[in-house]
Design brief:
Elongation Factor Tu (Ef-tu), domain 3; alpha+beta; two-stranded antiparallel ribbon; 2 domains
């Protein structure tokens, strides 16, 4: 009995075309499951990711608003935008406001850290937001809405009456 018969079948049972199709499908599935996509994660990594509560501290320097303490409040449910792409809803856990400071040299040679008078005149405030939500935690970080969040990631927090642009200072889970 020959290995390949006149109909193109191995040992008279398996067609070479069928075997080729099975091979192509197996390679495609392996590529889909194991090879990382544009976001740096493969489907297998995202499936094994664990969803946990995540806290992100964000700083927005030089927010121009006349009364920011009346605008941004703890407990607000806001939209999170990461790298100019909407990524879902998140809750503002805490808000801290501070006036930008400048270093001023004193006559005795010491340096004082004083509030910047230019910022006070132009109603500029630094805002530190603590944001909380559920996110996927993988082996190399936190993924929120299919986008990695790390220290330094550009974040926008958007509500009906404001948008705050800043960057992540800390990511904890």
């Amino acid at each position: 009995m020959a290995i390949l018969d006149r109909h193109g079948r191995l040992w008279g049972k398996i067609s070479l075309l069928d075997l080729g199709v099975v091979g192509v499908v197996a390679i495609a599935l392996a590529g889909l499951l194991l090879v990382p996509g544009n976001n740096g994660y493969s489907i297998a990594q995202l499936v094994t990711a664990e969803t946990k509560p995540v806290t992100v501290e964000m700083i927005a320097r030089g927010l121009s608003a006349t009364a920011p303490e009346n605008l941004i409040k703890a407990g607000d449910r806001v939209s999170l935008v990461i790298r100019n792409q909407p990524r879902g809803q998140i809750v503002v856990k805490a808000v801290r406001f501070s006036t930008p400071k400048v270093l001023v040299a004193k006559p005795d040679g010491t340096i004082a850290n004083l509030p910047d008078p230019r910022a006070q005149e132009t109603s500029q405030t630094d805002v530190i937001l603590t944001l909380a939500a559920q996110a996927q935690v993988t082996s190399d970080g936190v993924v929120f809405g299919n986008e990695k969040i790390k220290v330094g990631t550009s974040l926008d927090v958007e509500a009906p009456s404001y948008i705050v642009r800043g960057s992540a200072m800390a990511v904890t889970f």
